[in-house]
Design brief:
Length: 272
């Protein structure tokens, strides 16, 4: 069974917890250690954000993380290096996150070749519309890397059906419009979106955008197969870096404890 599918079949949990961190934030080595921490803390899959200078779908927290990483000299080749290092260390699912621009500059052929060689299981390209995804998916399929699509509450049924028909790995159900960033409440509309997508795919359906507290995780886990958290996790990292500028162990503790806090409702739901 492939690593993405396996992440959703852990008997002890109702839903998979999927943290997002920006690769190379705040440095290559620190970032590698932080990814290992969130996996050790219970993440079933991780989203590895490849920093980009114009992250149009990202809110201020992830924009700042991308900037820290780029200023530390991070680059797309280093993202494959980091992924390969993580692959040597874990069997967790590794999903790369990039935008259309860097993907086409590098070319899909080289990107998926290098992603596969590095041990990546999937790739998410949030600004690649389904109308233009066929040729990219053909390359991804050839390398056996899942091109994971996104749907949003504004996606009509026809579009949901079309995206689900082309989906690989899982379907990312964006909870609300706008950019990434913590929200006090995760929109209830995403529950309907997931219910609609269930009619068009048997792949796992994961919800992201705005998740920032255990009760968000618990309510999403009642109807979805995975919960994605990015900005809230990165903000705790930011706070730890501000409070303990040189203490990487403190940064690791900050992300580890937050992932455990978010994971707790999933374990409780499974009767752990
Ligand atoms: O940061 P949030 O609100 O927790 O949302 C997840 C998000 O970080 C991650 O999945 C992501 C990072 N960049 C994106 C761009 C588009 C869609 C999703 C993303």
């Amino acid at each position: 069974m492939d690593r993405i599918a396996r992440a959703f079949r852990r008997p002890e949990k109702r839903a998979a917890l999927i943290p997002f961190l920006t690769a190379g934030d705040p440095s290559f080595d620190a970032s590698f250690a932080l990814f290992r921490e969130v996996i050790a803390a219970g993440a079933d899959l991780v989203e590895i954000g490849i920093p980009y200078s114009d992250p149009l779908a990202d809110g201020p927290v992830i924009q700042a993380a991308s900037l820290r990483s780029l200023r530390a000299g991070f680059s797309l080749p280093k993202a494959f290096e980091l992924t390969a290092a993580l692959r040597r260390d874990t069997e967790a699912g590794l999903v790369l996150f990039t935008y259309v621009n860097p993907l086409f500059q590098y070319t899909p052929e080289r990107f998926f070749r290098d992603a596969k060689a590095a041990g990546a299981d999937g790739v998410i390209v949030p600004d690649l519309p389904v109308e233009e995804s066929d040729p990219v998916r053909a390359v991804a399929d050839r390398y056996g890397v899942a091109l994971i699509p996104l749907i949003a509450p504004t996606s009509g049924e026809e579009r949901v059906a079309r995206v689900c028909a082309a989906a690989r790995g899982f379907v990312y159900c964006v909870s609300s419009l706008g950019v990434t960033g913590e929200r006090a409440h995760v929109s209830a509309r995403v529950r309907e979106l997931v219910a609609m997508a269930r009619r068009y795919t048997s792949l796992p359906l994961c919800v992201g955008f705005g998740v920032s507290a255990p009760d968000h995780v618990q309510s999403i886990a009642e109807y979805a197969d995975g919960v994605i958290v990015g900005s809230a996790l990165i903000r705790r990292l930011e706070r730890a870096m501000a409070d303990w500028p040189e203490d990487e162990a403190a940064w690791a503790e900050a992300v580890r404890s937050f992932v455990r806090e978010l994971n707790f409702p999933l374990l409780r739901q499974a009767g752990m």
